[in-house]
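Job type: complex structure
Entries:
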Amino acid sequence: MTTLTLAKALNAGLRRALADDEKVVLMGEDIGTLGGVFRVTDGLKAEFGAKRVVDTPLSEAGIVGTAVGLAYRGFRPVVEIQFDGFIYPGFDQIVAQVAKLHYRSRGNVRMPITIRVPFGGGIGAAEHHSESPEAYFAHTAGLRVVACSNPADAYVMVRQAIASDDPVLFFEPKRRYHVKGEVDETASLADARPMGVATTVATGTHVTLVTYGALVQTARDAAVAAAEDGISIEVIDLRSLAPVDYATIEASVRRTGHLVVTHEAGQQGGVGAELAASITERCFEFLEAAPVRVTGHDIPYPPAKLERHHLPDLDRILDGVDRVLGRPNSLSGVEA
Amino acid sequence: MTPSDRDATGLLTQSESTRADDFVQLVSPTGERRANAEFDPWITDVDPAALGRLYRDMAIVRRIDTEATALQRQGELGLWPPLAGQEAAQIGSGRALRDDDFIFSSYREHALAWCRGVEPAELLSVWRGSAASGWNPFEHGMAVPQIIIGAQALHATGYAMGAAWEGTDTAAIAYFGDGATSEGDVNEALVFAASFDAPVVFFCQNNQWAISEPVGLQSKQHLARRADGFGMPGVRVDGNDVLAVLAATRIALDRARRGAGPTFVEAVTYRMGPHTTADDPKRYRTDDELVEWGGRDPLARVLALLDASGVDIEGLQRDVTAEADRAAAELRAAVTTIADPAPLTVFDNVYAEPNSHLERQREHYTRYLAMFDTSSAEGSDAAASAPAEGDAR
């Protein structure tokens, strides 16, 4: 075991992928000489050369579109979108090309492209630097969407994403880049938990709390705080947003009877909406209350000094827990 | 050349970009061979026999195109985008390619599919609505045709970058139209290709019209002049002159293979037919314009040149017509062999790996369809048509 930050764990995972498969190439803005604005690719260009770790022109459509051509040629491109809010110029290439080419080619052309996206807020950044666009991609057939939450997962999941023959949107919780954790750099991918499988990171009996990315730590903290009030929360790190590991969530909800989903992204049409609807369909008779969503507001990402009023935090999550349990909460007496 | 200098919105439509005479031309519309010191060395191998083969290619793809349009009119195809008028641009460039070069085309490059040996049923299945696409790209060195305008320019660039990184001298070629030059993807591809010296040819068929919009709306100046701003050569050729196109493409491919980087080729041509069979070009262009471009026909000039070279063009025409008619008959025969896809194949190939979400949807839809399966429903007529009323679940 090695103690690494999440950013260093990603760096180690990328280094391993580059070393294991010569068809893996990294592409993005400032990822080479600079090592990425978050230093996730630090040192990789020096180690593997400018044809494996490629500084590209400033064009998200260009980065993703050339990755499509490289995939046609048999490469396994790993592209970095510098910030979440910069992904939209590349949206067409992701949604109309990367996602669909396997289908459009009747299975002849594979798109083993990993699109890394630092996502989410909480770092006091300028506009377009704190967004959570994951639902657009979870809605898109042909893509897989995952989010890591800790160094150990980051190291393994980035390699799993690169090894996948399907394109993967890989969301990295940028405000957790510097959180440290134990990473087993000797473990083989074959023994690792598949990236499509969720992880129960805290066990509990009263409420199932599902989240992903940066909020996993917040949810764990909320579970600890709730325990002091005698409320037992089971926290599930979703990890894969598309497809969703419903078996894990269902099994938990059948025991707890209560579901809370929390994410930084807005509520409308979000991942939480899909989870609430699907869990209601699948185990309605086990639910003792309507599922509750604790999400960012349906607003453009606000200025830094307002982001604490936008992002779900420990107290807002616990307010949602109180609501699902019918305990006094901010909406007591209010029609939902 | 255009109906008026200004369209209904007052937009200037008559500009440099709409001119169709200032380009490299090796064969005039009347079949005169024009000497060109730069281009001629690239086609010294094109003797009358080789020129006859280029004529044959163009005549056959024109016949295939006519037949496909007829098949659409008869309800056998849902849609067809005719290539009529652009035979020289497509055959001249297609025959310049090596087998290992990779084509990233738009949706109108049926002649490139012809050059690459695509079977008639593979060409038509997508237009019949029977399949997401026809051929296997890796069997024919030609990507899935692209309908999103200009997106493929980036794919060609990435492919070319990869081919160069592997140390090969394989090139990629991107086909797109005048309209696509306004798309960000094409411009971004030009940036990437120039910066990485990618062995790619940007082959722009300027056919004067993007559905109803004249090229003057896309650009005030010749499209080929844009190349200079990206740091690559731009060459403007008569796209209805198969020899000029062949030479220009060979020059561009040679540059690519030498590691000297990309080239932008503007082939000035004309879409004689509608944008697709769903289009009515009479709403936006005049008969005079059609007549004018009809006088610059790509096939007629080759025939005239062959005639002047002493070739028995009546015999050639007879042979080629017979061969083209056979190709058309094969096309017609092939369309009926394209099976309607089985319902559950709608779920196939969305993912390369197992996907739990989609597998569940497939399973549920399988059960739904089973409700209508008469063979397992006790011969009931009701079960064959719709779920019985009151059978709500």
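Summary: DSSP finds 15 helices and seven strands in chain B. Chain B touches chain A at residues 102, 104, 131-133, 136-138, 143-144, 148, 151, 153-163, 165-166, 172, 184-185, 188-189, 191-192, 195, 348-353, 355-358 (CB under 8 Å).
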